[in-house]
Every structure is written in C-alpha cells, then in structure tokens.
Amino acid sequence: MHPALAAAKPAETFFEGFEERIFDGPEGPVFYRIKGDGPPLVLLHGYPQTSAMWHRVAPTLAETYQVICPDLRGYGRSHKPPTVDDHATYSKRAMAGDVMALMASLGHTRFLIGSHDRGGRVAHRLAADHPEKVIAWSVLDIAPTREMYRDADSSFAHAYWHWFWLTLDAPFPETLIGADSDFYVIKKCGAMGNNSMDHFAAQALEEYLTCFRDPAAIHGACEDYRAAATIDIAHDDAETGKVTVPLLALWGADGVIEAHFDCLALWRERVEQVDGHTLPGGHYLAEQSPDDVLAAWQLFFAQAMKDEG
C-alpha cells in the first residue's frame, strides 16, 4: 500500500444511499452513481479521478436534486474505446455524447451540470452543442481549453506540465506512468492540491489509485489530453457564436488558474452569461472546500430552476 493511502483518513460516510449502476451506452458501458428524486443534476469529474471525487457534495445535493455521477469514458469503470488517428473517440464531443445518452436513458430532457477539471470541458461542449438540454452549468477551477493554450506562458507550462507531456505520442507517457501509476497519481494530486493529500478521503483515493492502475485508463487519459490539444480546439474554432446557457465559474484562490489567468474574462469570450468568483483552496475544490462549493452551487442551481419555471 502506498504510504499516502495508508495515511489517508476514511470518510465517515461515502455515497450513502447512492446506487451504483452500469448504463449500456451506444458506444460502451458507463458506470455511474445515482440518488435523489428532484430535478436532474449531473456531476462530471476531473483528471486523474473518478466520480468518487463528489462524495463530499453529492449527498447534500441529492436532498434537492436527482444527482447522477458518471465516470467519463477512459476513466474509472466506464468504457475505454480504441484510439483513432484524430483522437475523436476521446474528444469532449464524444464524452458529451455518453452523458447525453445516459441522461436520455434516465428520461431527462433537460438537466443541470456541475463539473470539475476535464469534466468541465465536457460540460462546455454539452452547453455549446446542446443548449436545449442544459439548464445551467458550473465549472470548478478551469478556464476554457483553447484560450488557456493560447495564453499559456512558460510559468503556466511548468505548473501544468501534464497538459503538454500527456499529448506526446503513445506509448511514451503511458509507459512512464505505467511503471509506477500509484507514484504518478499521488505526485500529480499532491502537487495540484498545494502539496497536501489531507483532503482526499481514503475511500476516494483508493478508487483513484485502483482505477488508474489499468493500462487502458492510463492510455484513455492521455488520449483525453491529446484530443484537447487537437480535435477539441478544432471543434471550438468551428463555433459561430457564444454559448447561451448560463455559467457559474468557481476557482481556487490558491490555484494555478488564479495565478495565471483572468478566469472570468476568458469564459466571457466564450459564454454570454457568466458569473463567478474564487473559493478557498487550490484545484480539488469539491474535496478541499465542499461547504463553499455547496453554498455557491445551491444558490446558482436554485436560481436556474426558478428561471426554468
């Protein structure tokens, strides 16, 4: 057992009352957790994690909403499709397609989205491609992909080295990560969590490490980043207008986004209606500052449902 996992404290409760299900999607199985009977709210996780990252906020949200927490394709217990030359099988449009199919299977024609990191990029594509389906969406600690690449400087590249290294041709990053995937995940999560692992519950950390030991997950995650640097930007460039669905952007006061970008200004280049602010913490806000995330989301989603009528 990795020392960081041995030292991690278990959460007193972990997705209590949630069901774990597999959706047989049109392109492959999608694992998800679900609880609640209210308006639908899908939560989309980041890298190198799984839907387990929502364990500190999902139970409270499920008191008001039906909360659906899938593992994105390439991650966790969801499908990991073969690579294609243009990385289209790991584009955010393809990932969004899995979410659309899952929500349709549950009978939801319109839904809310909460998201973090890579999941926020999937949420962006959902809101851009399917505005008739998305009531409102929120992202944690990201700015839009294309604009982050555009405005990146050397200091950002050092902080977010993985953005560039993971895009190198297979199997270079896959081979190095696979040599000791536990070391890699702990190092990656620790560095982006302000060099502390204290906010990761033992159950969640064990799930992250276990799932990322799968060579297919390592490759799928690399493909996610390769797609982000290529076909995802092509999809962004093909847009003819701004996203019309309201966005709440939240980011860590001590994180890389705050240090290197004007988060709201970049989102306002892409989205008509944007609000947002910093929260205490670094990158992993749903695990570092769950009460702050909940307070912001409960206000935002309640107003969105009021506007929805």
The count of β-strands is 8
Briefly note the structural class of the backbone.
alpha/beta
Helix content class: 40-55%
What is the CA–CA distance across the termini? Answer: 51 Å
Output the CATH homologous superfamily. Alpha/Beta hydrolase fold, catalytic domain
CATH architecture label: 3-Layer(aba) Sandwich
Q: Main beta sheet, described?
A: 8 strands, mixed
Regions with pLDDT < 50 over 5+ consecutive residues? none
Beta-strand fraction estimate: 15-25%
Shape: globular
Q: Treating each run of at least 4 consecutive H or I residues as one helix, how many helices?
A: 16
- The CATH class label is Alpha Beta
Give the domain tally: 1
Radius of gyration: 18 Å
Strand order of the largest sheet: 1-2-4-3-5-6-7-8
Q: What name is given to the CATH topology?
A: Rossmann fold
Mean pLDDT: 96
* H and E string: HEEEHEHEHEHHHHHHHHEHHEHH
Domain AB hydrolase-1: 39-285
Protein name: Haloacetate dehalogenase
InterPro entries: AB_hydrolase_1, AB_hydrolase_fold
Organism: Yoonia litorea
What does this molecule look like?
The mean pLDDT is 96. It is globular and about 55 Å long. The chain is of the alpha/beta class. It has a single domain, classed as Rossmann fold (3-Layer(aba) Sandwich). The protein has helices spanning 3-7, 58-61, 92-105, 118-129, 145-151, 154-159, 162-165, 172-179, 181-192, 202-212, 215-228, 231-237, 256-260, 263-270, 285-288, 290-308, and strands at residues 19-25, 28-35, 40-44, 66-70, 111-116, 134-140, 247-252, 274-279. It has an 8-stranded mixed beta sheet with strand order 1-2-4-3-5-6-7-8, with helices on both faces. 45% of the residues lie in helices and 16% in strands. Strand 5, helix 4 and strand 6 form a beta-alpha-beta unit. InterPro entries: AB_hydrolase_1, AB_hydrolase_fold. Residues 39-285 form the AB hydrolase-1 domain.
